[in-house]
Design goal:
This protein is α/β, with parallel strands linked by helices. The protein is built from 8 helices and 7 strands, in the order βαβαβαβαβαβαααβ. α2 links the parallel β2 and β3. It starts with 7 loop residues before the first strand and ends in a 7-residue tail after the last strand.
């Protein structure tokens, strides 16, 4: 159905909720999954559950990314690794935090694309990359100056990479989810005074589940999306359409 049988796919951020759900869906689709993330214990637990391979590396270090991916045969990538940073206005933001969010969410994803695409081009079988962005790149959200900026940069990385890699039959897309109540988002969106008004503006009026993000990711990776590239797909219950 997906055309992913036997294809090696890297998932960063696999120790998190969306990344873990994506690994499970890809394994079900027959892909050979390499799971990367910050928590080695969580990756080992995921590997024991799903049969995926583990490939931990540091998204903030080009040397670490190069060492991990330089000799690894990769056909597909899900850039799900990320850092939420802080809730702050532009007037209050800690520039050191801003730099770290950009370093992980945008620069880290670009490093993965840089080295994974070299493997894809070398192998000559095409490939597919899905970057996990955010609704925060599409609309202004209070307090999200760092996170939103990093994801807007990621969306542009998606478009330019789609342009540059298309001649190698490598597609690059992003998904732009609304809030999933992961540990990273609970501390802010779980507050009734924050989450309540937000949900009232959303046509579907509920938080997304991890699987509701993972399934479109697998679709964009697979054969059913073979003519789709350079797209930023909102998975947001209609929030950014209003």
């Amino acid at each position: 159905m997906w055309g992913l049988q036997g294809k090696p796919v890297l998932v960063t951020g696999a120790s998190g909720g969306i990344g873990g759900a994506t690994v499970r869906r890809l394994v079900e689709a027959g892909a050979v999954v390499y799971a990367s993330g910050r928590s080695v214990d969580a990756l080992n637990t995921l590997a024991a559950e799903t049969g995926c391979k583990t490939l931990p590396f540091d998204l903030a270090s080009e040397e670490s990314v190069r060492a991990a991916l330089g000799g690894t045969d990769i056909w597909g990538v899900v850039n799900c690794g990320g850092f939420g940073g802080e809730i702050a206005t532009p007037m209050e933001t800690d520039i050191a935090v801003f730099d770290h969010v950009i370093n992980v969410n945008a620069r880290g994803a670009l490093l993965v694309i840089k080295y994974a695409s070299q493997s894809m081009i070398r192998n000559g079988r095409g490939g597919s990359i899905v970057n996990v962005s955010s609704q925060a790149s599409l609309v202004a959200l209070s307090g999200h100056i760092s996170y939103g900026s990093s994801k807007a940069a990621l969306d542009n990385i998606t478009r330019v990479s789609a342009l540059e890699l298309g001649k190698y039959n490598i597609r690059v897309n992003s998904v732009n989810p609304t809030v999933v109540m992961t540990e990273m988002s609970e501390f802010y969106w779980g507050r009734p005074e924050i989450g309540g008004p937000f949900l009232k503006q959303m046509p579907l009026g509920r938080w997304a589940t991890e699987d509701e993000i993972a399934v479109p990711i697998v679709f964009l990776l697979g054969d059913g999306a073979s003519m789709i590239t350079g797209v930023s797909l909102p998975i947001d219950g209609g929030f950014t359409a209003c």
